[in-house]
Amino acid sequence: MSGTPSHGRRTIGLVLMKSEEAQATVHYVSEECPQIRVQDRGTFFLLETEGTIRIPLAEVEEYLGKPLTMSRFLVCMSSYYGRAHVEDDAFVVTADMSQLEPAKT
């Protein structure tokens, strides 16, 4: 081991099976989230970054041209690494360990 302190991995990722929902998500990310690296892996897209990926469904709908429900988005999402959670209007994968942060008063 080196003498450097060990820090948790900050790289997180999201894997989307190719579909019209995935393509719309990639278009959204490419235009609105330049910090997210997008790789076309043939049958799927890999989205990676350090920190957080937040996919707001209402904004992806604009690229899709029709409504996008969370359940429909989750069908094309085949995998992720990081800590995932669903918000009212978005799917989020993060490296943050919010359960270990002290409660705010």
Structure description:
The chain is α+β, with helices and mostly antiparallel strands and 105 residues long. It is built from 3 helices and 7 strands. Strand 6 (83-86) and strand 7 form a beta hairpin. The longest helix has 13 residues, at 20-32. Mean pLDDT is 88; it is low at 1-6.
Give me the secondary-structure topology.
Layout: E1 11-17, H1 20-32, E2 37-40, E3 44-50, E4 52-56, H2 57-64, H3 70-76, E5 77-81, E6 83-86, E7 90-94
Antiparallel strand pairs: 1-3, 1-5, 2-3, 4-7, 6-7
Helix pairs in contact: 1-2
What does this entry show, briefly?
By secondary structure, the protein is α+β, with helices and mostly antiparallel strands.
Provide key terms for this protein.
alpha+beta, 3 helices, three-stranded antiparallel beta sheet, 105 residues, four-stranded antiparallel beta sheet, single chain, disordered N terminus, monooxygenase, Class 6 soluble di-iron monooxygenase coupling, Phenol Hydroxylase P2 Protein, 7 strands, monooxygenase activity, mOase_MmoB_DmpM_sf
Integer tally of domains = 1
- What share of residues are in beta strands? 35-45%
* Average residue pLDDT: 88
How many H/I helices?
3
Strand order of the largest sheet: 2-3-1-5
* N- and C-termini, Cα separation: 39 Å
Pfam families: MmoB_DmpM (PF02406)
Protein name: Class 6 soluble di-iron monooxygenase coupling
InterPro entries: MOase_MmoB_DmpM (IPR003454), mOase_MmoB_DmpM_sf (IPR036889)
Keywords: Monooxygenase, Oxidoreductase
